[in-house]
Amino acid sequence: MSVLQQSDVRNKLLGALSPVDFASLQPALRTQPMHLRQVVISPHTAIAAAHFPEVGLVSVTLDGENGRVEIGLVGQEGVVGAGPILLGDDRSPHTHFVQMAGHMLSIDAEALRTAVEGHPDLRRLLHRFIQVQYAQTAQTAFANARGNTVTRLARWLLMCHDRVEGDQITVTQEFMSFMLGVERPGVTAALKSLQQDDFVRKYRGSVEILDRDGLLDLAGDSYGGAEVEYARLIEGRSEPIE
C-alpha cells in the first residue's frame, strides 16, 4: 500500500498543515468512502474518529420532534468531529451525515489527541477551524431569522458551491426543503425564481450554478462572514469573497 503524501490530499485543512504536522497524522489517516445519507457521527454517542472530507459534503443537523434542520456544512475545507474530541468531550448533540457522496480521510480520536498534544501548531489550526464552525452556525441563525426562502436558498447553494469542484450540485428539491426546514413547495418556488433570473439551472436531482455573482448579491449579508473567517484564520488572507 502506498504511503499517503500531503501533496496528494484534497482536503484543504490537511493541505494547510506544515509538513511536520502532517507527518504526525499521516500514519493514522485512512481513506474511507462517504455514502449518501451515511451517518458519520450520531448524536449523544461516543465519537470514535474525526473525518477530513476529500470529496463530498457532510451536513450537521439539529434534530427535534418536528424534524431536522441543517446548522452546519463541512466539505473539503474542514474536518468533522474534531470539536468535541479536542475540547475535552467525546460526543456531540448533533447528527453529522453525508449530504453528497464522496470519500474522506479518517483518524481515530485517540490518535488525533496524541498528535495534537505534541504539535501546538496543529492544535492551533484545528482550534481555528472550530472557531470558523462557530461563525458558520451563528450566520446560519442570522440567515434563518432575517432571510426569506430565496435568500436562504441562495446562501445554501453558495456554501455547497464552495465545497464542490465545478458548478454542478447534486441535490434534490426534497433534500433542499429538508435541510432548510422549508416545505417543498416553498423550495420549488424559490428555485423557479433563481432560474428565471438565470442564477441557476435546475435538473432532476441537481442544480447548476450559472451566475455566482448574482447569488452573492441576492444572499447579501447572510453569506460571507464565516468564509472571511476561514480565509483569515486558515489561509492567512483577507481578500473579499468572490
Secondary-structure map:
Layout: H1 12-15, H2 19-25, E1 30-34, E2 39-41, E3 49-64, E4 67-74, H3 82-86, E5 95-108, H4 109-118, H5 120-146, H6 149-162, E6 168-170, H7 173-180, H8 184-196, E7 200-203, E8 206-209, H9 212-219, H10 225-233
Antiparallel strand pairs: 1-5, 2-5, 3-4, 3-5, 6-8, 7-8
Helix pairs in contact: 4-5, 5-10, 6-8, 6-9, 7-8
Which superfamily, in CATH terms, is the homologous superfamily of the largest domain?
A: Jelly Rolls
**Number of separate structural domains:** 2
Known CATH architecture of the largest domain: Sandwich
CATH class value of the largest domain? Mainly Beta
Question: Helix/strand/pairing class, anyone?
Answer: alpha+beta
User: What is the helical fraction, as a range of percent?
Assistant: 40-55%
List the total number of helices.
10
Cα shape: globular
CA-atom Rg in angstroms: 18 Å
The overall strand count is: 8
**Unreliable runs, pLDDT <50, ≥5 residues?**
none
Classify the fold: give the CATH topology of the largest domain.
Jelly Rolls
Order of helices and strands: HHEEEEHEHHHEHHEEHH
